[in-house]
Request: fold
Amino acid sequence: MELSGAPAVVKQLVDGPEAAERYAREVTALRLASRVEPAVVPRLLGTDPAERVLVLEHLDHRPPGEDWLVDYASALARLHAATGAGDAGALPVWRGPTAGDVDSFLAFAGAVGASVAPGVRGELEALVERLRALPGHALLHGDPCPGNDMHTRGGVRFIDFEQASLGSGLVELAYLRIGFPTCWCSTAPPAALLDAAEAAYRAAWRAATGAQVGGGVADACAGWLLRGDALVQRAERGGVDHLARVREQDWTWGTATARQRLVHRLGVVASTADEDGGLPGLGRLAAQVRGGMLARWPGLRPLPARRP
Reply:
């Protein structure tokens, strides 16, 4: 639409599951993120809570360059740094994998012929608890996918905060390496670009907060591996064991199939599990499961290296 002679965007969350909650999350997240300069979100120009309507600044998006991930990661860190301990309660707390996810993953591992060594279940149960207790009050986007990032002349800005929460920024920094797990656009960028992007995130976080990023992404990557719901789009999540389902069928979502996504995640966890010293058994198991999947389904291709 045009507003006072300038283009603007009108967004309405129509009736549907959790529509009121999703609207409230988006409005709250946009207001919290508006603290950041230069901006990392569009300006919120107006709201109508009764109709679940937002009026937003219109952004001129430009096609991202080959090294888009570096600017993306820097902007993501600045978004995360918008909130702190004083904002506790403004948004729901991020939720990680559960004990049920552990059961589903171990059942899947056994079904593809992997041997689950003693102690692995304990490692995974400890992982679930560590992720639940991760410190931090970062402003998490909830779905920081290619397509929810607008590449403008003024830098990267993020849109669509309907799943925003507060938690540790590590769980979204891990998106880069684990293949954008909640996204239709699942990719595996080259290692050099990944390293540069993660370094850019850490530098931007340090500049915004004066502190170092606490820890690596090994736990967060392992957490995304356990979550079968991260193999399907949001409307299909909840109530179905998708890791059990993927044994019998494969399905395409966006740029990749469920089995492609899972093989990539297994490879990442196999290579990163020892980084923080807490997941040696899972690292070995992930390598076994990946090998079992590739033996059973030899036609599986790697994730695309470039975003569409």
Summary: The first strand starts at residue 2 and ends at 3. The radius of gyration is 20 Å. The CA atoms of residues 91 and 165 lie 5 Å apart.
